[in-house]
Design goal:
Layout (H helix, E strand, L loop, with lengths): L15 E5 L4 H11 L3 E6 L20 H6 L3 E5 L5 H12 L3 E4 L5 H4 L4 H7 L4 E6 L14 H7 L19 H24 L3 E6 H8 L1 H10 L16 E5 L4 E5 L3 H11 L3 H5 L6 H6 L1 H12 L4 H11 L3 E2 L4 H5 L2 H4 L4 E4 L6 E4 L22 H7 L9
Parallel strand pairs: 1-2, 1-4, 2-3, 4-5, 5-6
Antiparallel strand pairs: 7-8, 8-9, 10-11
InterPro entries: CoA-transferase_III_domain, CoA-Trfase_fam_III, CoA-Trfase_III_dom3_sf, CoA-Trfase_III_dom_1_sf
Organism: Gordonia westfalica
Pfam family, one: CoA_transf_3
Length: about 400
């Protein structure tokens, strides 16, 4: 979206990023950089491009849902990196960039002459972000690292699901974790470079990013001596914290502390006897009686409709939420009443997208078009003085 007259500049205007990327983790990082105003040149395989383009064709009957989510605002340039001309071309693009981000297989960038040491020897101000599944060393370095596999190796799957069944998360959490740490790394390196003039090489792996997110269960294992239990929608360390039945559905209630228990029972459910019962006064006692407490709360919540109970909980300040499917999220009043939807151009026509989460009060972040494969090849190569007769 063009910046309105008089608006402040976008935060990353003037920054150029060259991305040799595919799938989710790296494209997520660079899409946020594009939203923040950076120019992102996405280098893709000739004729095929980022394989996320072909994950599905759900968007307006032609475009892939992952791709339109992760690649708006970028320029697509097709290059054959198996050829000398293609490798020379990407090196020229990188020489004119502030950031080079790649998530090829470990060692692949170096074999193409795109290793961080080689690139920064000529351009010490360059920031290189190398993304991988398990890192650039260690016994798992060369293993396939799809999101589900990393969720398994990091223990995320072991704590997700019901007591009977483990499950992965419904979104690619390990990919997203790595993408967000890569984004943070770029911003941090740019900030440091502004004062030192020196770039950086940063490595970000899906494995390390997800292990970082496993802090609570990992410390329970290290110092509590136990694996936290899988409790479905519940919480391993807090009760009541689960879905509870209503007259016409369910609602999620999450009592975070003993004051919340007092408010839930005394004010919302009008059961002061539960508030005063010593067996339930502390969270430690309630966790030890999880099934009993959940049954008591379920019997009380069934007295109300979902809307009525939702209002009572909100008015009392007790944390609660309706459990919405995706159709209900698309229609969520918190999005519509805050004008969070925008139109984004794609090769299959305009699509709706939600504004980036980073909301600046003086400028709306960019939400550029989703590029067709190779859409910008000729223009970008001409701009950088690269002959197009042998390209892509």
């Amino acid at each position: 979206m063009p910046r309105s007259a008089g608006a402040a500049p976008l935060p990353l205007e003037g920054i150029t990023v060259v991305a040799l990327e595919q799938a989710v983790a790296a494209p997520l990082a660079t899409r946020h950089l594009a939203d923040l105003g950076a120019r992102v040149i996405k280098v893709e395989r000739v004729g095929e491009g980022d394989f996320a383009r072909q994950y599905d064709s759900a968007v307006r009957g032609g475009a892939g849902s992952h791709f339109v989510w992760l690649n708006r605002g970028k320029e697509s340039v097709e290059l054959d990196l198996k050829s000398d001309a293609g490798r020379d071309a990407i090196k020229t693009l990188i020489a004119g960039a502030d950031v080079f981000l790649q998530n090829l297989a470990p060692g692949a960038a170096a074999r193409l002459g795109l290793g961080a040491d080689v690139l920064r020897a000529d351009h010490p101000e360059l920031i290189v972000i190398d993304m991988s599944g398990y890192g650039d060393a260690g016994p798992y370095r060369d293993r396939k690292a799809y999101d589900m596999l990393v969720q398994a190796e990091t223990g995320l799957i072991s704590v997700t699901g019901t007591p009977e069944d483990m499950t992965k998360t419904g979104i690619p959490s390990s990919d997203i974790a790595a993408g967000m740490y890569a984004l943070t790394s770029v911003l941090s390196a740019l900030f440091r470079r502004a004062t030192t003039g020196v770039g950086a090489r940063v490595s970000v792996s899906m494995f390390d990013a997800t292990v970082e997110w496993m802090g609570h269960p990992m410390y329970m294992r290290l110092y509590g001596g136990r694996q936290i239990a899988r409790v479905g929608l519940g919480h391993a360390a807090i009760v009541p914290y689960d879905k509870y039945p209503t007259q016409d559905g369910t609602i999620l209630i999450g009592v975070q502390n003993d004051r919340g228990w007092d408010t839930l029972t005394r004010v919302v459910l009008e059961r002061p006897d539960l508030a005063e019962d010593a067996r339930y006064k502390t969270n430690i006692e309630r966790v030890s009686r999880r099934a009993e407490v959940d049954a008591i709360i379920a019997a009380e919540t069934k007295r109300f409709t979902t809307d009525e109970l939702d209002r009572r909980l909100a008015d009392a300040g007790v944390p609660a939420a309706e459990i919405r499917d995706l159709e209900a999220v698309v229609e969520h009043p918190q999005l519509s009443e805050r004008d969070r939807w925008r139109d984004v151009d794609t090769e299959v026509g305009p699509i709706k997208a939600v504004l980036p989460p980073m909301t600046f009060d003086d400028v709306e972040l960019a939400m550029g078009a989703v590029p067709a494969l190779g859409e910008h090849t000729d223009a970008v190569l001409r701009e950088f003085g690269i002959g197009t007769d042998e390209q892509p």
